[in-house]
Amino acid sequence: MQDINFIGFDNYIEIFTSNKNYAQGIINTLKFTVISNIIKITSALFLAVMLQKEIKGRNIYRSILYIPSILPFLIIGIIFKSILNYNNGLLNTVLDALHLGFLKQQWLSDLNVVWKAIYGVDAWRGIGYVMTIFLAGLNTIPNSYYEAAEIDGANFLQKLWHVTLPMMTGAITINLVFGITYGLKVFDIIYVLTNGGPGHATEVITTYSYTLFANGKYGMATALNTILFVITALIGIMIVKYMSKMEVQQ
């Protein structure tokens, strides 16, 4: 049996100083968290505002947008890995059929487009869920506020900025906290679509941790997960405090 030696902060030092791309994995995790949330929250808010109006078939549109969010990550990853395949994937096949072959890409193996493909798949799955929370928030806003704004001559953007957004602080906070927590611990989509590739271009903290645990490097994996926990806790606390302050001011 090997002796157990306390190594202090050696694992943490190695994460940020070694040439094994651990630091890049942390950067990728933060980048995914920020960009994916911007895409989903802005798109979902726009869709929620549009589908809050009395339009024909709005419940059908809501259902169509929400359905992807109840599908398992693993199934979505497998389906889109097939769709985005360069040689016989559905997307490139359709582009060829439409004589748009110049738009074909190696979606999951080209460094210039792989992250865009991941963001697209993630948005397809997550926008409906975020939209549902926004719809719940919109339903709590009294119509009298919008009527008063119309009397004052406010246009759509002015009502959105001065009425809708201030009254949606709670829903925005929920989506931010859920979205950031999800983004920081993302694993399934990236693991199934790219397995961290090409090379290590799409590695995130969780994929590195999984690989390290599988190879018996429990100390390094635990160090990475500890960093993930600290980042998640700090960001979550800052968001809740900031949004609580905004609610008090309103």
> What is the makeup of the main sheet?
none
* Beta strand count: 0
Radius of gyration: 22 Å
User: Overall 3D geometry?
Assistant: flat
Strand content: under 5%
Low-confidence spans:
none
CATH superfamily: MetI-like
The overall number of domains is 1
What is the count of DSSP helices, taking H or I runs of 4+ residues? 12
The CATH topology name reads MetI-like fold
CATH architecture assignment name = Orthogonal Bundle
Amino-to-carboxy terminus distance? 63 Å
The ordered string of helix (H) and strand (E) elements is HHHHHHHHHHHH
CATH class: Mainly Alpha
Structural class: mainly alpha
In brief, what are we looking at here?
With 250 residues, this protein is mainly α. It is built from 12 helices and no strands.
Task: Tell me about this structure.
The protein has 250 residues and is mostly helical. It has one domain: Orthogonal Bundle (MetI-like fold). Helix content is 71%, strand content 0%. It is built from twelve helices and no strands. Helix 3 packs across helix 6. The chain is flat and about 75 Å long. The N and C termini lie far apart (63 Å). The model has no long low-confidence stretch (mean pLDDT 88).
Salient structural properties:
single chain; 250 residues; flat
Topology (elements, then pairings):
Blueprint: H1 10-17, H2 22-52, H3 58-66, H4 73-83, H5 90-97, H6 114-138, H7 143-151, H8 156-167, H9 169-184, H10 188-193, H11 205-214, H12 218-249
